[in-house]
Design a protein that fits this description.
Number of strands: 24
Largest sheet: 7 strands, antiparallel
Length: 477
């Protein structure tokens, strides 16, 4: 008997990660030359300059800046002087540019000043211009709206590991809970987050913004915060728009692995922590079907009134089978709580070919956080109906312990292609978040004229997986 093999679909993100992993293992070339990379911008406007000539004086070789203002020179190890010239701009000489074998020397954002009169050649006696803040300042000065931001050069200088740590350095921006953005003191419901100009839906239904700590800084080119309205911005914000721009072509090969952890003595390694038996994939932030509704959304299931008279009939048996199919976990149990921990992996590089340049970056973030509250109180109070009574009286009193486990799993990947006249890029973003809660409370109620006491068992299931895929294909010609 022939059995057909079932082929499993391979997701594009998995294919991309496999290609990147293969390159990391095998490599493409083992050149002995070094590389000089940089970008040239107009000092007054911050816009990239196309066709700028970059000449290595010692070898009379060089390169021409592309439409992004970027250039690359492959050259033997040594110390060189670069002459950067363009029509109607003052020529700039960069001296003592050191090139090492197999390494990349990044000259970020060389700024050219418009030449309105005859000037002599300007000589800069420095290893390189290594700050992009000047270009960002030019953009802010010439922008029609109120904006601010932070660039990748600042990330390298300060050492921030994720976007949440970086964006709080922008004037008027603060971070709540280590991950949610507040602009000008307004709550996150007034803030919008976009990635490469595309809206990102938030994982938390009670919040408008995305968790900023899921983006490692080494895959980010810049973060720009717009604090006023312009026509091209989304209309559903009042506080600000946070635009995260990812790198298309990383200047050098990067690989970063970070592991984090946190301990709160009152919450972690506590033997009284409350939880319950969930699914096998809870640690990934989604349910494996353990909590699924056995009715499957059916509308023709037998009702109690239909089977009470004949429990052994066909409908009665079906009714009992459905009841037995429900998850039997209806209460919390105690176990030792674990500490908070997180894992982040990111990498990126660009591959230069004679006719085109390929760039890629990818990052995976995982966070697992645990909270435990002992003797927590959730009470309901009301003012007595008598006008002369101002002391609030308790209608409901809940007192007890409860535990919360939250899991966040995120992945971002991008691939870009640039030729002499065009550029294409494709980005993927995958996010999922799950949360489970369990609690045991002593409950007292005098609401609506009913006085009673009870033991209340509370547990909420792991959220259904939140899948956010943002795919953007853009081209510039």
């Amino acid at each position: 008997m022939n059995k057909k093999k079932q082929e499993l679909p391979i997701k594009p993100l998995v294919v991309l990660l496999l290609i990147i992993a293969f390159q990391l293992i095998t490599g493409f070339v083992f050149a002995q030359n070094g590389t000089i990379r940089g970008a040239v911008f107009d000092e007054s406007t911050g816009e990239p300059l196309y066709g700028v000539s970059i000449l290595v004086k010692e070898t009379s070789t060089g390169a021409i800046a592309d439409f992004d203002g970027k250039f690359e020179i492959q050259i033997a190890p040594g110390t060189y002087t670069l002459q950067i010239s363009y029509i109607s701009f003052a020529t700039v000489n960069l001296t003592e540019v050191v090139v090492e074998s197999g390494k990349v020397n990044v000259l970020s954002d060389v700024l050219l000043k418009s030449e309105e009169s005859e000037l002599e050649t300007v000589t800069v006696s420095a290893a390189a211009i290594r700050t992009t803040e000047s270009a960002l300042m030019s953009v802010k000065r010439n922008a029609p709206n109120l904006l601010d931001g932070i660039s990748s050069a600042t990330f390298r200088q300060i050492g921030d590991g994720d976007a949440a740590s970086a964006v709080k350095r922008v004037t008027g921006v603060s971070i709540e809970g280590g991950k949610y953005v507040y602009v000008r003191g307004l709550g996150d419901r007034y803030t919008k987050t976009v990635l490469n100009g595309v809206d990102i839906p938030g994982l938390d239904p009670d919040r408008n913004t995305i968790q900023m700590d899921i983006f490692p800084t080494n895959v980010i080119d810049n973060i720009v915060v717009s604090k006023s309205f312009t026509a091209e911005l989304p209309a559903d914000f009042t506080g600000g728009v946070v635009d995260i721009e990812t790198k298309d072509f990383p200047e050098e090969k990067t690989f970063r692995l970070s592991i984090s952890g946190g301990v709160n003595p009152s919450m972690h390694f506590n033997k009284n922590y409350l939880t319950y038996q969930g699914g096998k994939t809870d640690w990934l932030g989604f349910d494996d079907g353990t909590r699924a509704n056995p009715t499957g959304g059916r509308t023709d299931i037998p009702q109690f009134a239909d089977v009470i008279g004949n429990p052994n009939g066909a409908k009665g048996q079906e009714f009992q089978q459905l009841l037995r199919s429900f998850n039997k976990t209806l209460g919390a149990s105690t176990q030792t709580s674990m500490m908070d921990f997180g894992l982040s992996l990111s990498l990126g590089n660009q591959i230069v070919r004679p006719r085109a340049t390929w760039g890629y970056n990818a990052a995976i973030t995982y966070k697992n956080e645990t909270e435990f509250y002992q003797d927590a109180k959730f009470n309901l109070f009301a003012k007595p109906i008598e006008s002369n009574q101002n002391e609030l009286e308790a209608l409901q009193i809940q007192s007890g312990n409860y535990g919360v486990n939250s899991v966040l799993l995120g992945g971002i990947a991008g691939i870009a292609l640039k030729t002499k006249v065009s550029k294409f890029k494709l980005n993927f973003l995958h996010l999922q978040n799950g949360e489970s809660k369990a609690g045991i409370f002593d409950y007292e109620s005098s609401n609506l004229g009913a006085n009673y006491e009870a033991k209340q068992l509370v547990f909420s299931t792991m959220k259904a997986p939140t899948w956010v895929r943002i795919t953007r294909l853009s081209s510039t010609t």
